[in-house]
């Protein structure tokens, strides 16, 4: 669920600021999944082979300020003992422009995408983009 963190007592440290606290919107999600599936048919036993997988997942987002937003997603594969695909996204509101960085820092799908573009839909073709696809890793 969504919540906010009260960081009271900042009024004195900020001088003439009229706010008594900072509210940092955030959301975190933990989940567990168990997947059981039938795979190939075994002619000797006349039964389907079974395969299972367990994963613990973590995702979330938060705003550092009203113009900086961060989101992430990761997990741990409890069956194969390895970290699942991890992604990190950072967005910055630059008033009429916006900047974003999306990153998969490691693994098979290691990649990044950095973009600066105009927010107006009329000028949506005005942008600068730099990226490296996971396909470049092969």
Overview of the structural elements:
There is one protein chain. By secondary structure, the protein is an all-beta fold. It contains 1 helix and 9 strands; from the N terminus they run E-H-E-E-E-E-E-E-E-E. The chain has one helix spanning 11-14, and strands at 2-6, 23-42, 47-63, 68-77, 82-83, 87-94, 97-104, 111-118, 127-132. Strands 1, 2, 3, 4, 5, 6, 7, 8 and 9 form a 9-stranded antiparallel beta sheet that branches. A hairpin with a 4-residue loop joins strand 4 and strand 5 (82-83). The chain starts with a strand and ends in a 6-residue tail after the last strand.
Quick rundown:
The chain is an all-beta fold and 138 residues long. The chain has one helix at 11-14; strands at residues 2-6, 23-42, 47-63, 68-77, 82-83, 87-94, 97-104, 111-118, 127-132. Strands 1, 2, 3, 4, 5, 6, 7, 8 and 9 form a nine-stranded antiparallel sheet that branches.
Supply the key terms.
single chain, 138 residues, mainly beta, nine-stranded antiparallel sheet, 3% helix, 61% strand, elongated
